[in-house]
Amino acid sequence: MNSVIIALVILIGLSYAVIPTCYYRFFDKKIIKTMDKKDSIMLTFDDGPDERYTNTLLDLLKKNDVKASFFLVADKAKKNPNIVNRMIEEGHKIALHSYSHQNALFTGYWSVKRDFENSMKIMKENNWKVNYYRPPWGDINIFTLLFAKKNGLMPMLWSVMAEDWSRFSTVETIEKKLLKRVKEGSIICLHDSNGAEKAPERTIQALRTVLPILKEKYKFITLEDMT
Questions:
Q1: Catalytic annotation, residues
Q2: What domains are there in the chain, each with its CATH number?
């Protein structure tokens, strides 16, 4: 009997989130993962804004005249409206990365519904327009895309990561991965919050080297250029 219950729980988990996530990541052609833009790349950041790191990152982007797209955690955005407004004022674009960065595997229908409702309420109260959504960890469940569509949000993933969130990543390994993996049409996913201790510091430091190199080869575009 116990083995039957365990098998049933596993089956439910697979059907609820694992299989939808696998399909979403690898087979769903409607999900944006790369761009068909000649000589262009997109730089995106997840998990912020973070008062410890995001302003320093914005300083660096301004110095290099690079525009990026920020997938915001709505609760953090609510606590740091000045940073979000600075992003917009300096020509960066914003999108949604959930309300509190919960994994879809552990959220039910009502949690998903509240997550989107609370997120969009914050965006509307601050007059922040968002058209794109990236789920935390790139994971979804059977309700995620339903509520994204209901709120007029287009799902977007990425084609390049540098594991900048990992405690095993150094400034040098982040630099090497970016320079090796980025190519025409890449959507780069980095992080300005969360991850291992001081991980965003290493990301910012790596970008000090990488941005000037990538600028010589590619044009940086934002979410606005996708429409």
A1: 46, 191
A2: 2-226 (3.20.20.370)
